[in-house]
Design brief:
The complex is a heterodimer of chains A (236) and B (408). Chain A is an alpha/beta fold and 236 residues long. Helix content of chain A is 49%, strand content 13%. Chain A is built from 11 helices and 8 strands. Chain B folds into 2 domains: 153 residues, Rossmann fold (3-Layer(aba) Sandwich), CATH 3.40.50.1100; 217 residues, Rossmann fold (3-Layer(aba) Sandwich). In chain B, the strands form 4 sheets. Chain B has a 6-stranded mixed beta sheet with strand order 3-4-14-9-10-13, with helices on both faces. A 4-stranded parallel beta sheet of chain B has the order 7-6-5-8, sandwiched between helices. A two-stranded antiparallel ribbon of chain B has the order 1-2. The chains are: A alpha/beta (236), B alpha/beta (408). The interface between A and B is large, with 44 and 36 residues.
Chain lengths: 236, 408
């Protein structure tokens, strides 16, 4: 799974990036709707959020693009955003808008199930997957209760910290992932810090989905959209 | 699973999963401290030996005569060590950090007051300390940066977002999700995820406890009104907490900036410009656009220049228990000048908002009544900011000459 921030640097570019990624063989994508206060994101994605907003990205614009993308490409797309975006739009209306555009689910990192009853109900009503998060500090009991609400897959965060920093692909990570596996029957995705093929190789057999977020944005900023396709091909 | 930390429909804990265990640990640590018999005494002991508690209540005789209405009393939080009520919260959280066995503290700061207070506490307790401060604020508040660094803290200028207080809070959260094992986040106001609003209000309630006793002792009755400025809301909640169950009108005064009819203000509860949203871990009124993106705010007082407001205050407004007003930059400078000249007291620009609103209303009250204003901080140590606000020509000359000397 790859991640992009919609509207960064523009909606036209976002479409081209998505097209490039799909052609390079990406089979699942996370589309981030920008927010002014993205507390779980590190510098790379934080700046992408800011840039998108400075260039005039709106929630409506994001939905329009998402609709265009799901019509054009035959892979599942998810929305990622912070809680205030659906909250201000109206949670049920937001979820219904996702369903209309054939989006498959959503990741909202600052909306734990304790606070997200309305969201979870709406996701159920429209048959979309609320992707919940396991972290290395999540107690086992809590993993069990999170798994009850989750659909689609579980997003396992590789380490403490924010997106885009270095992750140690170590035995410790393996132990954590096997714990995650025990607590849910859903597929596992691993994100935060995947940068190269060796990381993906490490994850084979441990998780079903590898999430590439900051690294593709970095490559795009440095070398342009076309190199993103090449980078993704090297991972497979 | 249950949600906690709600005040009416405001508050909550909208936190990334990675922080869940840390917040749990903090909730437990806080409740354990609050419920342990010696803790409040340990807290008041340190506040009376390291700071100047109980802070006095000053009768403002000249201002009272000047306005010819109710008798004006001033609660002197400016006499705390480091010059503001901020130290109450910081020392309390410092005691908690010791109990929890952590060795490093981080904090956000806008004007620098909370940063200086945290760095002071860290120096005293022997904690490592990192302060996040928006790059814009670092540039405006060099004297506070100077002291934080002298006190041994590392000051990190935040270069993302609007580069002000809210961005410093985001950055402090990013540090916390990385280093929570040995690090406590000393949030400076009664905002953020549960348990911060409750915990910060608890430590600041020392203001209200003292003030209630002092005014009743002095006047034999409750004040008709209590005034406090509102940024995040910690000094207001501190003093209001002493009067919540008494027949006292409570008035929170927000930053009116250039005026509520402009977009250049930071008034969330007194203006119609704010709406309910979720950011920085909690639900409250935010100054935000239709999509939910946070707007830029403005105030002459950096400490009030913030997009959100304590969920406890949002609830008290909804219940009609606290009235909210706004004082403009211009009104605030006039109130500050008058207070300096009449009483020889120098309130911080933040606190001067409370004075400005009280001055608008005090003549309408009877001479048998009394009112209470919280002087949450002192202004003399913010000489650069205040001299700027008054565009004092002699001061500017002095700075120019100083700059020349440094170049030489």
């Amino acid at each position: 799974m790859t991640h992009i921030v919609l509207g960064c640097p523009s909606f036209e570019d976002s479409f081209r990036i998505i097209e490039t990624m799909v052609k390079a063989g990406v089979d699942l994508m996370e589309l981030q709707m920008p927010f002014s206060e993205p507390i779980a994101d590190g510098p790379v994605i934080l700046r992408a959020n800011q840039q998108a907003l400075e260039n005039g990205a709106t929630v409506q614009g994001c939905f329009d693009l998402a609709g265009k993308v799901t019509r054009a490409f035959d892979i599942p797309f998810l929305i990622m955003s912070y809680c205030n975006i659906p909250y201000r739009y109206g949670t049920r209306r937001f979820v219904s808008s996702m369903a209309t555009r054939n989006l498959r689910g959503a990741i909202i990192p600052d909306l734990p199930p304790e606070e997200g009853q309305e969201y979870l109900n709406a996701m159920k009503e429209f048959d979309l997957a609320p992707i919940l998060i396991f972290s290395p500090t999540t107690p086992i009991e809590r993993m069990k209760s999170l798994a009850i609400f989750a659909r689609g897959f579980i997003y396992c965060i590789a380490r403490k910290g924010v997106t885009g920093e270095t992750t140690a692909f170590s035995d410790e990570l393996g132990v954590y992932l096997s714990q995650c596996r025990k607590e849910t029957s859903l597929p596992l995705a691993l994100g935060f810090g995947i940068k190269e093929k060796a990381d993906i190789d490490f994850l084979k057999g441990k998780v079903e989905i590898g999430v590439i977020g900051s690294q593709t944005i970095r490559i795009m900023e440095k070398k342009g959209i076309d190199s993103v396709g090449n980078f993704i091909r090297t991972l497979r | 699973m249950m949600n906690r930390g709600y005040y009416g429909k405001f508050g909550g804990a909208f936190i990334p999963e990675i922080l869940f265990a840390t917040i749990e640990e903090l909730v437990e640590g806080f409740l354990d401290a609050r419920n342990s018999p010696g803790f409040w005494k340990e807290y008041t002991d340190i506040m009376s030996t390291y700071s100047c508690r109980p802070t006095p209540l000053t009768f403002a005789e000249n201002l009272t005569k000047h306005f010819g209405g109710a008798r004006i009393y001033i609660k002197r939080e400016d006499l705390n060590h480091t010059g503001a009520h901020k130290l109450n919260n910081v020392m309390g959280q410092g005691l908690l950090v010791k109990r929890m066995g952590k060795t490093r503290v981080i904090a956000e700061t806008g004007a620098g007051q909370h940063g200086v207070a945290t760095a002071t506490m860290a120096a005293k307790f022997g904690f490592r300390c990192t302060i996040y401060m928006g790059e814009v604020d670092v540039a405006r508040q060099r004297p506070n940066v100077f002291w934080m660094e002298r006190l041994g803290a590392q000051v990190i200028p935040v270069k993302d977002g609007a580069r002000i207080l809210k961005d410093a809070i985001n950055e402090a959260f990013r540090d916390w999700v990385t280093n929570m094992d040995d690090t406590h986040y000393v949030l400076g106001t009664a905002c953020g995820p549960h348990p911060f609003p409750e915990m910060v209000s608890y430590f600041q309630s020392i203001i209200g406890k003292e003030a209630q006793r002092q005014i009743v002792e002095r006047e034999g009755k409750f004040p008709a009104r209590v005034y406090a400025c509102v940024g995040g809301g910690s000094n207001a909640l501190g003093i209001f907490s002493g009067f919540l169950n008494d027949p006292v009108q409570l008035v929170g005064v927000e930053a009116g900036g250039k005026g509520l009819d402009t977009s250049r203000h930071a008034s969330r509860l007194a203006s119609k410009d704010a709406s309910i949203g979720v950011a920085q871990g909690y639900k409250t009124y935010f100054l935000q656009d239709e999509d939910g993106q946070m707007k830029e705010t403005h105030s002459v007082a950096a400490g009030l220049d913030y997009v959100g407001v304590s969920p406890i205050l949002a609830c008290l407004r909804e219940e009609g228990r606290v009235r909210f007003e706004a004082a403009s930059d211009r009104e605030v400078l006039e109130a500050l000048s008058l207070t300096v000249k009449k009483e020889g007291l120098i309130p911080a620009l933040e606190s001067a908002h409370a004075f400005a609103q009280a001055f608008k209303e005090v003549s309408d009250l009877s001479a048998d009544d009394n009112i209470l204003i919280n002087q949450s901080g002192r202004g003399d140590k913010d000489i650069f900011t205040i001299a700027d606000a008054f565009t004092d020509p002699d001061w500017q000359e002095f700075i120019k000459k100083k700059a020349k000397d440094y170049r030489a």
